[in-house]
Amino acid sequence: MKKFLNIHDVDDVNALVREAMYCKKNPRADHELGKNKMLGLIFMNPSLRTRLSTQKAAINLGMDVMVMNFSGEGWALETQEGVIMNGDKAEHIKEAAAVVGAYCDIIGLRSFPSLKNRELDYKDHVINEFVKYAGVPIVSLESATVHPCQSLADVLTIEETKQVERPKVVLTWAPHLRALPQSVANSFAEWMNRTNYDFVIANPEGYDLSKEYTGNAKIVHDPDEAYRGADFIYAKNWSSYQQYGQILSSDANWMVDERKMKLTNQAKFMHCLPVRRNVVVGDAVIDSESSIVIQQAGNREFAAQAVLKRILIGI
Ligand code: AN0
Ligand code: CP
User: Fold this and answer.
1) With 109 labelled, which of 9, 51, 229, 244 sits at a CA distance of 20 to 30 A?
2) Percent of the chain having pLDDT more than 70?
């Protein structure tokens, strides 16, 4: 594998999931593979799981790791071409990416969207500039459009937990106070479309995601209809793609609650975390036996390890 930016960098999802399962069973089996190799983790935005799980995965593989928060700690980056840099941006992304690439064998990068300009965000400019100028393989730690390390961990978690061969998996929008990216939802949809699951997306009117990611997935606008017979309820808030970056609904009827969970086939509850309790999901659901959010977060380590292993084998 030469990079891990989205589903298109994965030929065989099942094989990668099996690799992650192998890493989970044998976390230190490949600790010679990453010897004398440096992983750089660059964060333009906050993180708990992605930062720690990727660092842990790299350590399991024998790599050394450097982590840097660009927001606040690095120089403010100019990302546009041809500008006269006489404002508050001290460094251009071209040099920054090339310099990080000079120190590292692999770079992981997190860079959220602005949620102001859809066209610019959906070009995924920042991560693509790193691909162009860093000169080493790039792993997306959540870009403006997708979060593939999360999605791989999500598929692994479903595979470990499913009770039927072809589960009904529902991605449901849930309310939130702040405008959040579509990345986790876009990414989950494009990974689900590469499985044989019965995949349904439930969201209020005005919240349909881009077709580029949802493809032919079934979309419903009534939560009860979606929950009926579901084996997995995957909750996530996203801001509107259609009225880009806006919050159009705060309807509490979309929160994951016990009443709707009773409509399901004893569904497991999933969320990528961080989650706002009693806004996105009620305490009674996230604290119940049906919640697998900690297993899901734990699997981030092995998803990251499978990806790093595949890249290390290729360099
Ligand atoms: C981020 C998001 O929604 O993309 C990160 C999730 C992994 N969440 C928040 O900003 C709360
Ligand atoms: N799920 C996830 O990516 O969490 P962090 O934002 O804490 O890394």
Assistant:
1) 244
2) 100
What does the pLDDT look like over 146-172, one tens digit per residue?
A: 999 999 999 999 999 999 999 999 999
Residue matched to tokens 């077709």? 211
CA–CA distance, 266 with 230 (Å, rounded to integer): 8
Q: E-strand spans in the chain? A: 38-43, 64-69, 77-78, 91-92, 106-110, 138-140, 168-173, 198-202, 218-220, 232-236, 268-270
Q: What is the atom index within ligand 2 of the atom nearest the CA of 142?
A: 3
Which of ligand 1's atoms lies nearest the C-alpha of 147? Answer: 7
Nearest Cα to 20, choosing from 120, 156, 142?
156
3-state SS of 243-267?
CCCCCCCCCHHHCECHHHHCCCCCC
Distance between CA atoms of 191 and 185, rounded to whole angstroms?
A: 10
Q: For residue 60, which amino acid is it?
A: N
What one-letter code names the amino acid at 165?
Answer: E
**Token digits for 239?**
């801001």
* Helical axes 293-314 vs 49-60, angle rounded to 10°: 50
Is residue 184 within 6 Å of ligand 1 at its C-beta? Answer: yes
Does any ligand 1 atom lie closer than 6 A to the CB of residue 272?
Answer: yes
Sign of the torsion formed by the C-alpha atoms of 226, 13, 6 and 193: negative
- Rounded CA separation 179/186 (Å): 15
Please state, in angstroms and rounded to a whole number, the distance separating the CA atoms of residues 155 and 153. Answer: 6
Mutation pick for ligand 2 pocket among 273, 293, 294 (CB with most ligand atoms within 8 Å): 273
**Around Cβ 254, how many Cβ atoms within 10 Å?**
21
CB 270 within 8 A of CB 280: no
Quote the pTM value: 0.98
Atom of ligand 1 nearest to the CA of 276: 11
Tell me the per-residue pLDDT of 280-291, one tens digit each, with 9 for 90 and over: 999 999 999 999
